[in-house]
Every structure is written in structure tokens, then in C-alpha cells.
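Protein in question passed on here:
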Amino acid sequence: MPVIKSLYRAPLYFFNGHLQTIMPGLFREVSEVYYQRERIFTPDGDFLDLDWSKSKTATKILVILSHGLEGDAGRPYIKGMVKAMNQAGFDALAWNFRSCSGEPNKLLRSYHMGATEDLQLVVEYTLGTGNYQELYLVGFSMGGNITLNYLGKRPDQLPIEIKKAAVFSVPCHINSASRKMAQLENRIYMQRFLKSLRLKLAAKEPLMPVTMTLDNYHKLRTFPEFDERYTAPIHGFKDAHEYYTQCSSKQYLKNIKIPTLLVNAQNDPFLSPECFPIAEAEANPYFYLEMPKDGGHVGFVENYSKNQYYSDRRAVEFFTKGNMV
């Protein structure tokens, strides 16, 4: 029954989930992470940019990191985790979703909650180098949902080199999480996401079918409205409901067959009650659920002035300790 009692608490001056979300996102800085970028090409004629950071000691273990919505490998939560993994003696690869590396991708399609084929390509490419015997996966928010989908959809087809995974702040039930994001208290986050997404859509407007335009984009207020109009049709879904139903990772957690840790904070402003899969953790001995009271969304500050974050430490512990918890 791997529902883990969490010992994490945020510092007293980070007194709510919004503060624990916003402060690290805006003001955290991570030094001494030096990426080497590599571009690989996808079977459909597109590309992915991979950012590598090697440990100072030789290793046969690689950690692959997947960022969140409108993130990239340069975000502080990614760089902080990369640094922690390098210090633990692991190489790290932070891959950028399509259109997230600073250069628009070539196709109209981009990335979405269920785009496991790109993560699979990254995994296959890294194994093809012959440099690694073990892979660990880390994902944040949307990247965590993609990771859980990848692990749970076809567990018998996973490469045997994938040994463990740790994911944080995952909206594993997308439909209810999208309704939570539509609440007034989350308006500031929605405006920021929609503004960023519009810039990318504008760059791809010449690729859009005649039935799809940016007219009245300013009237969009929620993810269901955006996904109904753009994400679903661009990526082959009938509508937003079908997209959410097919791409929510919660339904696949029962199939996971490698030790996997999900850490979702109870005060995460992005997550609905359905995003805390207690029954799934109780039923699957490989799936560990930790629900700290604090953390916000991709926050998990331990010591702000010393740049210490629980998510970094927790993932390293999970990957290195034999008892898994």
C-alpha cells in the first residue's frame, strides 16, 4: 500500500500554495549547469532539441527530464533537478518539447498531454548511443503526465533499461484539473499561459487550415476553450473532451511496472481532488504516492536562501535508496 506519509513542510514565510508556486517560478536561479545542445529529428520530419549535462564522474546512468506546459530545459526547476542529478553522479538530459527550445518547430502540430511518442524517441535515441545501462525518468506537471502515460500505456514494451521514475505536480485527471484552472483564483496563471501559447500559434498561422484562425483569440479564458479550438483538432482529437479522456494518465497508473513516485502537493492551485490517485497507489505495489500539505505547483521550497528544494532531494533519494521510499 505505497501511499507515503510526507515529512516535507514549506518554510513558514511561504504560507500558501500560490506563494509556493510563484516565488520559485519567478525568482529561483540555478548556477553551474552547462548544457550541450543536440538536435535529433523525428520520423514525421520535425526535430527535438536535447540539452545534456554530464556528471563530473563517469556513469552509465542517465536521467531524462520532461518539463511542463510552456516550459523548457532552461527553467529553474529543470536546471535545479539537473544539478542535483549531476551531483549524485548521474548524467542528465533535459529535452525540449516541440516549439519549446527557442525555435518554432516545422509542423503545425506541437506537444500535448499525451505526446508519448516524442519521449519514446528520446529514450530510444539515448539507448542507441550505447553509453547508458540504466535510465531514470523525471517529469514535472505536463511532463509528468506524459511520463506516466509512457510508463502505463504499454508497460510490457518499455526498454528494460528504464528502472525508476519520479514525477511532480501532475494533473493526471485533465478534465477536472482544467476546471480547477478555470476558477477565478487561477486567472493570473491562465492569462500567462494563453498569452505564451498565442505567440506560438501566431508563428504557425500560415500552416493552419482555412477553418482555423486566431480571430477572437482574446475571448478565450480557459484551457477547455483553447484545447477545443486548437489542441484537439491540430493533434487528431475529435474535441477537448476526447483529448482529456484519452490523455489523462490516471487511468494507466494501474499498469505501471517499475518503481514510480508521484509527489502532488495538497495546496497545489492547479490540481483537483481527482489528481490525487490514492486508490491507484494502494492497488499497485510499484506506484508510490506522496501528498505533502505544502509545495504549491512545481514549488517544494525547503530553504529559499540556500536554493534547496524538496523535489530535487526527493528524486535523488528515490533513485538511490534501495527501499524506494
Q: What stands out?
A: The longest helix spans residues 187-203.
